[in-house]
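job 3f2a | input accepted
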Amino acid sequence: MIARETSIRPWAGCLLAAVLLIGWWNLCAATAAEGEPAETPVAVGPDGDEKIVDTKPAKVKPVSDKTPIRTDMLGVLQGGGYLMIPIGISSLILLAFVLERAISLRRGRVIPRPFVRRFLKQLSDGELDRDKALELCEANGSPVAIVFAGAARKWGRPAVEVEQAIIDSGERVTNGLRRYLRVINGVATVTPLLGLLGTVVGMIRAFNNIATADALGRPERLAGGISEALLTTAGGLTVAIPALIFYLFFVSRVDRLIIDIDAYGQEVVNVIAAEELQERS
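job 3f2a | predicted structure (281 res):
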């Protein structure tokens, strides 16, 4: 039985993503806290009484009743409405599965060069038989070893049968390499739609507020509502664009790995097929 490919569990990636998000959130809060004024200075008068010295300039009350727009992370999440919640969850899912695939699709993990070179050299030198080859593949357990093991099971058969065994093993390996890529593609597809839905809902709410209020000649009310509504679209695109980039990157990497595995498999066929063994003997 071939050793199964081990991979990083997605829940571990989710946990790491949550820790990173909480750390970023705390960093933003600490940065915002640095801007708070220090303690009010106190001066001692001639009679020994302490008096508070006000060093801050007098604040002028703004004439406009516009609500200031918060640019910090919490303010953006609150301003975008409840649809920012699934967008935020999608960003955590994206980060988790990107970390998992980045680790699982490392070339040294899928096609370990030392094993491949040693295995092919021992085959070409005639140092391996069917049982020893299967034992080495089972001990390694990498995707390329799984393909080699499928070919080794057809040791001494015609080249067509050995190639078919490699194709069958390659399909199983390909499914494992493409695991979770649909999740990343799903995040790239769904998050812009969530952002668009949030914008539509926000626009409807903004126009309803204008219709029910005395907003004639006060464009700031409409501008503020539109600004809040567009936050969901910005949030959705912020998650969707990296998701699409990572999806295309991982698909390209899987394709390159499959091409290399197929090339190595063909070298194995050229050594263990019945035609080659007859020529050697």
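job 3f2a | Residues 112-178 form one domain.
job 3f2a | closed
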